[in-house]
Design a protein that fits this description.
- The protein is mainly α.
- The protein has a single domain, classed as Tetracycline Repressor, domain 2 (Orthogonal Bundle).
- 69% of the residues lie in helices and 0% in strands.
- The longest helix has 29 residues.
């Protein structure tokens, strides 16, 4: 999940003991990964975190807010800097051409997927059957789509996208190739290493978005899908 802004305390109350509040996040992550969204309860999170259930309720209010905060924390890790303010994002912007910029993006975003993709997949599956989870999932999707569209706009400014590719379609391709589902599938189900994913998805993204080396484009990409 690519954030477009830093979460403000992940929606938690600021008048509670921060140590107890912070224990709830890794405990919730472990519960969601072990039991899935529907199998996880506020009470089970509280037991694992060794805090009162009321603490989890006061901090996050709902289970959907808990998994949202877990995803946000995974993306940011221990650094509150959003992706758009990181050194790898700056390197992407400073790249001399679209291919180099795309390579910088892929290698910069994959560590985020490594941390967040599994729990993001828990939310995606839950969204199929739970309205609150679906609303949370769609909010995260909109944030990620906005971030990836900014990448596509940058690539289009630095060179030509593959002939006939619209900006909207290019964004969808990037969301799929460098998204939570593909990363989780390849690393968890297929047993790929992180480096394998970086190498193969980087090449796939280049071919699908920019075309083969030397392949030209007849003009600027259209803005519609």
């Amino acid at each position: 999940m690519l954030l477009t802004k830093v979460p403000c305390g992940c929606g938690r109350r600021q008048d509670l003991d921060p140590e107890r509040a912070d224990r709830a996040n890794p405990a919730a992550r472990e519960e969601f990964l072990r039991k899935g969204y529907h199998g996880t309860t506020i009470a089970s999170i509280a037991r694992r975190a060794k805090v009162a259930p009321q603490t989890v309720y006061f901090v996050f209010h709902t289970k959907a807010a808990v998994i949202s905060a877990v995803i946000d924390a995974a993306v940011l890790d221990e650094d509150p800097t959003p992706p758009e303010a990181t050194s790898w994002w700056a390197a992407m912007r400073a790249a001399p051409d679209a291919a180099t910029a795309l390579q910088a993006f892929v290698h910069g975003v994959l560590p985020l997927l490594a941390r967040a993709s599994r729990v993001s997949e828990v939310l995606r599956v839950a969204a199929m059957t739970d309205d609150e989870a679906r609303a949370t999932f769609l909010r995260h999707e909109r944030m990620q789509q906005a971030g990836y569209r900014a990448v596509i706009d940058l690539l289009a400014e630095k060179g030509r996208l593959r002939d006939g590719l619209t900006l909207g379609t290019a964004t969808d391709i990037l969301l799929t190739i460098c998204g939570d589902t593909i990363y989780s599938l390849l690393t968890t189900d297929r047993g790929w290493s992180h480096q394998q994913v970086a190498d193969q998805l980087g090449e796939a993204a280049r071919l699908l978005l920019l075309g083969s080396p030397g392949q030209g484009s007849s003009g600027r990409p259209r803005r519609s899908k």
